[in-house]
Design brief:
Number of strands: 11
Structural class: alpha/beta
CATH class: Alpha Beta
Largest sheet: 8 strands, mixed
Shape: globular
Strand order of the largest sheet: 3-2-1-7-8-9-11-10
Protein backbone atom coordinates (compact mmCIF):
# COMPACT_ATOMS: atom_id res chain seq x y z
CA UNK A 1 0.00 0.00 0.00
CA UNK A 2 1.96 2.94 -1.25
CA UNK A 3 1.28 6.66 -1.18
CA UNK A 4 -0.65 8.27 1.67
CA UNK A 5 -0.90 6.65 5.07
CA UNK A 6 -3.13 3.57 4.61
CA UNK A 7 -6.45 3.49 6.43
CA UNK A 8 -7.24 0.18 8.12
CA UNK A 9 -10.73 -0.52 9.46
CA UNK A 10 -11.31 -3.45 11.80
CA UNK A 11 -14.74 -5.00 12.36
CA UNK A 12 -15.68 -7.23 15.27
CA UNK A 13 -15.58 -7.11 19.03
CA UNK A 14 -14.24 -8.70 22.17
CA UNK A 15 -10.67 -9.71 22.95
CA UNK A 16 -9.88 -10.52 19.31
CA UNK A 17 -10.32 -6.92 18.23
CA UNK A 18 -8.09 -5.67 21.04
CA UNK A 19 -5.26 -7.94 19.83
CA UNK A 20 -5.68 -6.74 16.24
CA UNK A 21 -5.57 -3.10 17.38
CA UNK A 22 -2.40 -3.78 19.38
CA UNK A 23 -0.92 -5.23 16.17
CA UNK A 24 -1.98 -2.23 14.07
CA UNK A 25 -0.31 0.13 16.56
CA UNK A 26 2.95 -1.42 15.42
CA UNK A 27 2.25 -0.43 11.78
CA UNK A 28 2.20 2.84 9.87
CA UNK A 29 -1.53 3.23 9.31
CA UNK A 30 -4.64 5.15 10.29
CA UNK A 31 -6.87 2.98 12.49
CA UNK A 32 -10.64 2.85 12.84
CA UNK A 33 -12.21 0.08 14.94
CA UNK A 34 -15.89 -0.62 14.18
CA UNK A 35 -17.27 -2.55 17.13
CA UNK A 36 -20.36 -4.72 17.62
CA UNK A 37 -23.19 -3.52 19.90
CA UNK A 38 -24.94 -6.87 20.35
CA UNK A 39 -23.35 -7.90 23.67
CA UNK A 40 -25.98 -8.52 26.36
CA UNK A 41 -24.02 -10.10 29.21
CA UNK A 42 -21.96 -9.00 32.21
CA UNK A 43 -21.50 -5.34 33.12
CA UNK A 44 -22.42 -4.26 29.57
CA UNK A 45 -25.68 -6.17 29.74
CA UNK A 46 -26.61 -4.53 33.05
CA UNK A 47 -25.96 -1.03 31.70
CA UNK A 48 -27.93 -1.89 28.60
CA UNK A 49 -30.92 -2.87 30.74
CA UNK A 50 -30.61 0.08 33.12
CA UNK A 51 -30.01 2.88 30.61
CA UNK A 52 -31.16 1.46 27.28
CA UNK A 53 -27.69 2.18 25.92
CA UNK A 54 -25.69 0.08 23.48
CA UNK A 55 -23.25 -2.15 25.38
CA UNK A 56 -19.94 -0.37 26.07
CA UNK A 57 -17.70 -3.30 27.07
CA UNK A 58 -16.10 -4.18 23.74
CA UNK A 59 -15.66 -0.48 22.97
CA UNK A 60 -13.93 0.04 26.32
CA UNK A 61 -11.54 -2.82 25.63
CA UNK A 62 -10.60 -1.35 22.24
CA UNK A 63 -10.09 2.12 23.74
CA UNK A 64 -7.67 0.58 26.23
CA UNK A 65 -5.83 -1.23 23.41
CA UNK A 66 -5.29 2.09 21.60
CA UNK A 67 -4.42 4.20 24.68
CA UNK A 68 -0.93 5.70 24.64
CA UNK A 69 -0.43 5.33 28.38
CA UNK A 70 -0.47 1.76 29.77
CA UNK A 71 -1.28 3.19 33.21
CA UNK A 72 -4.38 5.01 31.95
CA UNK A 73 -5.47 1.87 30.13
CA UNK A 74 -5.01 -0.15 33.32
CA UNK A 75 -7.17 2.28 35.29
CA UNK A 76 -9.85 2.21 32.59
CA UNK A 77 -9.97 -1.59 32.85
CA UNK A 78 -10.17 -1.73 36.67
CA UNK A 79 -13.01 -3.69 38.23
CA UNK A 80 -14.86 -1.80 40.96
CA UNK A 81 -15.25 -2.91 44.57
CA UNK A 82 -17.87 -0.36 45.68
CA UNK A 83 -20.97 -1.93 47.25
CA UNK A 84 -23.62 -2.43 44.61
CA UNK A 85 -21.11 -2.11 41.78
CA UNK A 86 -18.78 -5.01 42.56
CA UNK A 87 -17.10 -6.35 39.45
CA UNK A 88 -18.31 -3.57 37.18
CA UNK A 89 -15.73 -1.96 34.93
CA UNK A 90 -14.53 1.58 35.68
CA UNK A 91 -14.37 2.36 31.96
CA UNK A 92 -17.89 1.07 31.32
CA UNK A 93 -19.30 3.23 34.09
CA UNK A 94 -17.45 6.33 32.86
CA UNK A 95 -18.79 5.76 29.33
CA UNK A 96 -22.27 5.25 30.75
CA UNK A 97 -22.04 8.59 32.56
CA UNK A 98 -21.23 10.50 29.38
CA UNK A 99 -23.91 8.58 27.47
CA UNK A 100 -26.45 9.61 30.08
CA UNK A 101 -25.45 13.28 29.56
CA UNK A 102 -25.30 13.26 25.73
CA UNK A 103 -27.53 10.40 24.60
CA UNK A 104 -24.76 9.31 22.21
CA UNK A 105 -22.40 6.39 22.70
CA UNK A 106 -20.14 7.75 19.96
CA UNK A 107 -19.75 11.01 21.89
CA UNK A 108 -18.98 9.03 25.05
CA UNK A 109 -16.36 6.95 23.23
CA UNK A 110 -14.78 10.05 21.66
CA UNK A 111 -14.67 11.71 25.11
CA UNK A 112 -12.81 8.73 26.53
CA UNK A 113 -10.52 8.43 23.47
CA UNK A 114 -9.40 12.04 23.88
CA UNK A 115 -8.51 11.52 27.53
CA UNK A 116 -6.80 8.20 26.86
CA UNK A 117 -4.90 9.80 23.93
CA UNK A 118 -5.91 6.90 21.68
CA UNK A 119 -3.91 6.43 18.48
CA UNK A 120 -6.98 5.48 16.42
CA UNK A 121 -10.74 6.00 16.47
CA UNK A 122 -13.19 3.57 18.06
CA UNK A 123 -16.68 3.53 16.56
CA UNK A 124 -19.78 1.68 17.78
CA UNK A 125 -21.30 0.01 14.72
CA UNK A 126 -24.66 1.55 15.68
CA UNK A 127 -25.97 4.10 18.18
CA UNK A 128 -28.78 1.65 19.02
CA UNK A 129 -28.35 -1.60 20.96
CA UNK A 130 -28.59 -4.67 18.73
CA UNK A 131 -29.96 -8.13 19.38
CA UNK A 132 -28.03 -11.00 17.83
CA UNK A 133 -30.38 -13.56 16.25
CA UNK A 134 -29.12 -16.87 14.88
CA UNK A 135 -30.97 -19.73 13.24
CA UNK A 136 -30.06 -23.22 14.38
CA UNK A 137 -31.11 -26.42 12.60
CA UNK A 138 -32.29 -27.98 15.88
CA UNK A 139 -33.11 -25.04 18.14
CA UNK A 140 -34.63 -22.79 15.50
CA UNK A 141 -34.42 -19.07 16.23
CA UNK A 142 -32.15 -18.17 19.16
CA UNK A 143 -32.10 -14.53 20.32
CA UNK A 144 -29.37 -12.81 22.32
CA UNK A 145 -25.62 -13.29 22.35
CA UNK A 146 -25.61 -14.83 25.83
CA UNK A 147 -28.38 -17.27 24.83
CA UNK A 148 -26.44 -18.34 21.74
CA UNK A 149 -23.47 -19.17 23.97
CA UNK A 150 -25.50 -20.66 26.83
CA UNK A 151 -27.58 -22.93 24.61
CA UNK A 152 -24.51 -23.97 22.62
CA UNK A 153 -26.25 -23.15 19.36
CA UNK A 154 -24.88 -24.23 15.98
CA UNK A 155 -25.85 -21.24 13.80
CA UNK A 156 -26.53 -21.53 10.10
CA UNK A 157 -27.05 -17.79 9.66
CA UNK A 158 -26.73 -14.76 11.92
CA UNK A 159 -28.27 -11.29 11.89
CA UNK A 160 -28.54 -8.33 14.24
CA UNK A 161 -32.01 -6.96 14.92
CA UNK A 162 -32.90 -3.70 16.65
CA UNK A 163 -29.89 -1.73 15.45
CA UNK A 164 -31.53 -1.01 12.09
CA UNK A 165 -29.23 1.83 11.07
CA UNK A 166 -25.48 1.67 11.17
CA UNK A 167 -23.43 4.51 12.60
CA UNK A 168 -22.71 6.89 9.66
CA UNK A 169 -19.13 7.25 10.92
CA UNK A 170 -18.67 3.49 10.53
CA UNK A 171 -20.09 3.50 6.99
CA UNK A 172 -17.88 6.44 6.00
CA UNK A 173 -14.79 4.71 7.41
CA UNK A 174 -15.55 1.49 5.51
CA UNK A 175 -16.02 3.46 2.30
CA UNK A 176 -12.60 5.16 2.46
CA UNK A 177 -10.64 2.21 3.87
CA UNK A 178 -7.63 0.68 2.14
CA UNK A 179 -7.93 -2.54 4.15
CA UNK A 180 -10.98 -4.00 5.92
CA UNK A 181 -9.87 -6.44 8.61
CA UNK A 182 -12.46 -8.85 10.05
CA UNK A 183 -11.83 -11.16 13.02
CA UNK A 184 -10.44 -12.79 14.98
CA UNK A 185 -12.86 -13.21 17.85
CA UNK A 186 -16.12 -14.99 18.57
CA UNK A 187 -17.11 -15.62 14.98
CA UNK A 188 -20.89 -15.45 15.09
CA UNK A 189 -21.41 -13.22 18.11
CA UNK A 190 -18.62 -10.65 17.53
CA UNK A 191 -17.38 -10.77 13.93
CA UNK A 192 -20.74 -11.43 12.24
CA UNK A 193 -22.40 -9.40 15.00
CA UNK A 194 -20.63 -6.30 13.65
CA UNK A 195 -20.90 -7.18 9.96
CA UNK A 196 -24.64 -7.94 9.94
CA UNK A 197 -25.67 -4.72 11.71
CA UNK A 198 -27.63 -2.26 9.59
CA UNK A 199 -26.12 -1.71 6.15
CA UNK A 200 -22.56 -2.64 7.18
CA UNK A 201 -22.34 -5.85 5.13
CA UNK A 202 -23.57 -4.03 2.02
CA UNK A 203 -20.99 -1.28 2.61
CA UNK A 204 -18.23 -3.91 2.90
CA UNK A 205 -19.27 -5.37 -0.44
CA UNK A 206 -19.27 -1.93 -2.08
CA UNK A 207 -15.96 -0.80 -0.59
CA UNK A 208 -12.94 -0.82 -2.94
CA UNK A 209 -10.68 -1.80 0.00
CA UNK A 210 -8.79 -5.04 0.23
CA UNK A 211 -10.63 -7.37 2.59
CA UNK A 212 -9.16 -9.85 5.05
CA UNK A 213 -10.58 -12.39 7.49
CA UNK A 214 -8.22 -13.45 10.29
CA UNK A 215 -9.22 -17.00 11.18
CA UNK A 216 -9.64 -18.04 14.80
CA UNK A 217 -7.09 -20.36 16.36
CA UNK A 218 -9.53 -22.62 18.23
CA UNK A 219 -13.16 -23.68 17.88
CA UNK A 220 -15.86 -22.03 20.04
CA UNK A 221 -17.75 -24.99 21.44
CA UNK A 222 -20.37 -26.37 19.07
CA UNK A 223 -20.70 -23.04 17.22
CA UNK A 224 -17.66 -23.70 15.07
CA UNK A 225 -16.81 -27.29 16.04
CA UNK A 226 -15.17 -29.06 13.13
CA UNK A 227 -14.63 -25.83 11.17
CA UNK A 228 -11.63 -25.72 8.87
CA UNK A 229 -10.03 -22.33 8.21
CA UNK A 230 -11.88 -22.04 4.90
CA UNK A 231 -15.22 -22.79 6.62
CA UNK A 232 -14.97 -19.43 8.43
CA UNK A 233 -14.42 -17.74 5.07
CA UNK A 234 -17.30 -19.67 3.45
CA UNK A 235 -19.79 -18.58 6.13
CA UNK A 236 -18.59 -14.97 6.00
CA UNK A 237 -18.81 -14.97 2.19
CA UNK A 238 -22.36 -16.36 2.34
CA UNK A 239 -23.46 -13.48 4.57
CA UNK A 240 -21.79 -10.92 2.31
CA UNK A 241 -23.36 -12.48 -0.80
CA UNK A 242 -26.81 -12.15 0.78
CA UNK A 243 -26.12 -8.48 1.52
CA UNK A 244 -24.84 -7.79 -2.01
CA UNK A 245 -27.85 -9.33 -3.71
CA UNK A 246 -25.88 -12.24 -5.11
CA UNK A 247 -22.54 -10.67 -6.01
CA UNK A 248 -19.48 -12.52 -4.71
CA UNK A 249 -17.10 -10.40 -2.63
CA UNK A 250 -13.46 -11.47 -2.57
CA UNK A 251 -12.03 -11.77 0.93
CA UNK A 252 -8.49 -12.95 1.66
CA UNK A 253 -8.00 -15.41 4.53
CA UNK A 254 -5.11 -15.27 7.02
CA UNK A 255 -4.49 -18.37 9.12
CA UNK A 256 -1.87 -19.52 11.59
CA UNK A 257 0.87 -21.89 10.55
CA UNK A 258 3.58 -22.73 13.06
CA UNK A 259 7.12 -22.19 11.75
CA UNK A 260 9.07 -25.30 10.81
CA UNK A 261 12.74 -25.75 9.98
CA UNK A 262 13.51 -25.05 6.35
CA UNK A 263 10.02 -23.75 5.52
CA UNK A 264 9.19 -20.09 4.77
CA UNK A 265 7.47 -18.15 7.54
CA UNK A 266 4.99 -16.65 5.07
CA UNK A 267 3.13 -18.49 2.31
CA UNK A 268 0.10 -17.97 0.13
CA UNK A 269 -2.07 -19.67 -2.47
CA UNK A 270 -5.05 -18.69 -4.59
CA UNK A 271 -8.55 -19.78 -3.65
CA UNK A 272 -11.14 -20.75 -6.28
CA UNK A 273 -12.59 -17.21 -6.42
CA UNK A 274 -9.17 -15.58 -6.85
CA UNK A 275 -8.80 -14.45 -3.23
CA UNK A 276 -5.64 -15.34 -1.34
CA UNK A 277 -5.19 -17.90 1.42
CA UNK A 278 -2.32 -16.55 3.53
CA UNK A 279 -0.33 -18.45 6.15
CA UNK A 280 1.97 -17.05 8.83
CA UNK A 281 2.94 -17.71 12.45
CA UNK A 282 0.26 -15.88 14.46
CA UNK A 283 -0.21 -17.70 17.77
CA UNK A 284 1.13 -16.56 21.13
CA UNK A 285 2.47 -19.09 23.66
CA UNK A 286 -0.88 -18.82 25.47
CA UNK A 287 -3.25 -21.34 23.92
CA UNK A 288 -5.86 -19.90 21.58
CA UNK A 289 -4.52 -16.33 21.51
CA UNK A 290 -3.02 -14.33 18.67
CA UNK A 291 0.28 -12.55 19.26
CA UNK A 292 0.15 -8.83 18.32
CA UNK A 293 3.76 -8.75 17.13
CA UNK A 294 3.26 -11.77 14.87
CA UNK A 295 -0.02 -10.41 13.48
CA UNK A 296 1.73 -7.10 12.74
CA UNK A 297 4.55 -8.89 10.92
CA UNK A 298 2.07 -10.86 8.80
CA UNK A 299 0.07 -7.74 7.87
CA UNK A 300 3.31 -5.98 6.98
CA UNK A 301 4.41 -8.87 4.77
CA UNK A 302 1.15 -9.42 2.90
CA UNK A 303 -0.21 -5.85 2.68
CA UNK A 304 2.99 -3.76 2.49
CA UNK A 305 2.30 -1.94 5.75
CA UNK A 306 5.46 -0.47 7.27
CA UNK A 307 6.44 -1.65 10.73
CA UNK A 308 7.08 1.05 13.33
CA UNK A 309 7.81 -1.06 16.42
CA UNK A 310 5.93 -1.74 19.62
CA UNK A 311 4.57 1.23 21.64
CA UNK A 312 7.02 2.30 24.31
CA UNK A 313 6.08 1.91 27.96
CA UNK A 314 6.50 5.17 29.86
CA UNK A 315 5.27 7.09 32.85
CA UNK A 316 2.08 9.15 32.42
CA UNK A 317 2.58 12.79 31.44
CA UNK A 318 1.06 15.68 33.38
CA UNK A 319 -1.74 15.90 30.81
CA UNK A 320 -2.44 12.18 31.15
CA UNK A 321 -2.57 12.49 34.93
CA UNK A 322 -5.16 15.26 34.47
CA UNK A 323 -7.11 13.00 32.11
CA UNK A 324 -7.05 10.23 34.70
CA UNK A 325 -8.59 12.63 37.21
CA UNK A 326 -11.31 13.59 34.69
CA UNK A 327 -12.14 9.94 34.07
CA UNK A 328 -12.20 9.28 37.82
CA UNK A 329 -14.51 12.26 38.38
CA UNK A 330 -16.87 11.07 35.63
CA UNK A 331 -16.84 7.57 37.12
CA UNK A 332 -17.75 8.91 40.57
CA UNK A 333 -20.54 11.03 39.13
CA UNK A 334 -21.88 8.02 37.24
CA UNK A 335 -21.82 5.87 40.38
CA UNK A 336 -23.61 8.56 42.35
CA UNK A 337 -26.38 8.77 39.75
CA UNK A 338 -26.81 5.00 39.78
CA UNK A 339 -27.09 4.71 43.56
Amino acid sequence: MGGATPHVVTLGGGHGQAVVLQALRRLECEITAVISVADDGGCSGKLRQELGMPPPGDLRRCLSALAKSPELARRFELRLEEPGFEGRSAGNMALAGIFRETGSLQQAVDWAAERLACVGRVVPVSESPGVLVVYDAELGRVEGESNVERRDAVPMVAAVHGALRANPIAIEAIGRADLLLMGPGSFYTSTLGAITTGEVAQSICESPAEKLLVANLVAEGRQTEGFTDTDYLRVLSDHLTIASGGEVTQVDLLTHRAPTAGAPHFAQARLDDGARHLWAPLASPAAGLHDPDLVAQALSEFFDLDLRGAPESRLPTERERASALEIEAQLRASLDRNQ
